[in-house]
From TrEMBL:
Belongs to the NAPRTase family. The modification Phosphohistidine is found at residue 224. It catalyses: 5-phospho-alpha-D-ribose 1-diphosphate + nicotinate + ATP + H2O = nicotinate beta-D-ribonucleotide + ADP + phosphate + diphosphate. One of its GO terms (molecular function) is glycosyltransferase activity. The keyword Oxidoreductase does not apply. The keyword DNA repair does not apply. InterPro entries: N/Namide_PRibTrfase (IPR041525), NAPRTase_N (IPR040727), Nic_PRibTrfase (IPR006406), Nic_PRibTrfase-Fam (IPR007229), Nicotinate_pribotase-like_C (IPR036068). Residues 10-129 form the Nicotinate phosphoribosyltransferase N-terminal domain. This is Nicotinate phosphoribosyltransferase. GO terms for biological process: NAD+ biosynthetic process via the salvage pathway. Transiently phosphorylated on a His residue during the reaction cycle. Phosphorylation strongly increases the affinity for substrates and increases the rate of nicotinate D-ribonucleotide production. Dephosphorylation regenerates the low-affinity form of the enzyme, leading to product release. Pathway: Cofactor biosynthesis; NAD(+) biosynthesis; nicotinate D-ribonucleotide from nicotinate: step 1/1. It is an enzyme of class 6 (ligase).
Length: 398
């Protein structure tokens, strides 16, 4: 009998902890509803995974944080003692998750307090991916994955050793691949390889368990769900981004200073990202739309506020591969600091077609919430009336 896929509650992305802490401290009674969304039809029906997924969820909900894991979280300066005390009592409640099928379609819905519901996302996506790819796993697939990984390392090493890195603008690469990984042990191998062979460029991983095990820096701040929740938390809709950013500032007081820009698009974000926020936050994260155009807008915005963009960080995290990382680095080096969070291209590049699944917040406190992405395919299917209203409020064209 196979062991469970998830064996530690640290086996998730850092931003789940940082968002959960902010939720616990600022809106602990909020209720969230999440849905699994498949953006592209998979090669094989996901519905056949239902029974195995149910069993994995049962195992997940039996996990607790160990004393050593809690001690590690306490060592992170931005994690507060009362939050770790809460986690000492924490376990995921199985009753908040419902799995069903509709023909070949796998359906999964989560509904419950956000301090519970939001913590399921990365675990669920990692489980579905690993269950799906078990059918393909084998020595030949792993060998192809290692060949591809070696090629990536060689590309990056040649760029670094060939003088491609400008003084004062380091090439910074992180693993953001937990949600899309081929398997847990494969992500471990990839991250350990990069840390060993590219120590001057590889800055860490979003996966807290891997960071702890390998002595790396855990990377992450906020995700879309944190910003989206403020669409339903009693502030004027036009002010939800500013309310979310202000809450983050009050919670972290200068730590974790990278703001996510594409909940209602970059243009609408920059309208709210005034001098106050531009000085308080260390930089911005790109997750949809043309990354070159996005970076140009960010730099122009900082310059319009008389802030030198060379002291700010532009974090790119949307569908990156090695070539795109190097192209973006070359383009912006000398103009701004850059960092690259690479997901599927690291954790699930073994010659197979990756899944394109997400688990997104659809309602908060009984009200619809939405994301108006700069990439049309990433705009979530939600209540069309609310979507139209959101577009109107932020002057985002359909």
């Amino acid at each position: 009998m196979r062991p469970p896929i998830i064996v530690s509650l640290l086996d998730t992305d850092l931003y789940k902890f940082t968002m959960l802490q902010a939720v616990l401290h600022h809106f602990p009674a909020a209720h969230g509803e999440y849905a699994l969304i498949c953006r592209k039809a998979p090669t094989r029906p996901l519905a056949r995974l239902r029974d195995a997924l149910e069993a994995e969820l049962d195992a997940l909900c039996r996990l607790r944080f160990s004393a050593d894991e809690l001690a590690y979280l306490r060592s992170l300066r931005y994690i507060k003692p009362d939050f770790v005390d809460y986690l000492e009592l924490f376990h995921l409640q199985r009753r908040f998750v419902r799995v069903s099928t509709d023909g070949d379609t796998l359906k999964l819905e989560i509904a419950g307090p956000m301090i519970q519901a939001m913590f399921f996302e990365i675990f669920v996506l990692a489980i579905v991916n690993e269950l799906y790819f078990r059918e393909d796993d084998g020595p030949e697939v792993r060998a192809e994955g290692r060949r591809r990984l070696s090629h990536k390392v060689s590309q990056l090493r040649a760029f670094i050793d060939g003088g491609g890195v400008e003084d004062g603008y380091p090439l910074l690469l992180s693993d953001f691949g937990t949600r899309r990984r081929f398997a847990r042990d494969w992500q471990h191998e990839v991250v350990a390889t990069l840390a060993h062979q590219l120590p001057e460029a590889f800055r860490g991983t979003s996966n807290v368990a891997l960071a702890r095990e390998l002595g790396l820096t855990p990377i992450g701040t906020m995700a879309h769900e944190f910003m989206q929740a403020f669409q339903a938390l009693g502030v004027r809709l036009r002010d939800f981004q500013k309310a979310a950013l202000e809450t983050w500032v009050q919670e972290y007081r200068g730590d974790l200073g990278i703001a996510l820009t594409d909940v209602v698009g970059m243009d609408a974000f920059l309208t709210d990202f005034d001098l106050y926020f531009a000085k308080l936050f260390d930089g911005l994260r790109h997750d949809s739309g043309d990354p070159f155009a996005w970076g140009e807008k960010a730099i122009a915005h900082y310059q319009s506020l008389k802030i030198d963009p060379r002291g700010k960080m532009l974090v790119f995290s949307d569908a990156l591969d090695t070539g795109k990382v190097l192209a973006l680095y070359r383009y912006f080096a000398g103009r701004a600091q850059t960092s690259f969070g690479v997901g599927t291209h690291l954790s699930n590049d073994l010659g197979l077609t990756p899944l394109s699944i997400v688990l997104k917040l659809t309602r908060c406190n009984g009200q619809p919430v939405a994301k108006l992405s700069d990439s049309p395919g990433k705009t979530l299917p939600v209540d069309p009336t609310f979507l139209a209203y959101l577009r109107q409020v932020f002057a985002v064209p359909a």
